[in-house]
Amino acid sequence: EEEKIMSVDKLNAKKDEFVGTAKKVAGKVTGDKHLENEGKVEELAGKAGSILADAKDTVEGALDGLKNSNK
What we know:
The chain is mainly α.
C-alpha cells in the first residue's frame, strides 16, 4: 500500500490551525479578547486551508489515475 506524504499546502494549513488555537487559548487565559479573536480567525483559516488542500490532493490523485490508465 502506498504511503501518503502530507502536502506542503496541508502542512501550512495545519500550522496555521495550530498557531490559531494557541493564540485563542492564550487570549482566553489572559483575558485578551483581541488575541482570542485573532486566534479564532487563524484557526478557521487553517481548517479551511486544510479542506482545500485535501480537495486539491484528491483532484490531483484523480488526474494521475486517469493519466496512468491511458498508458
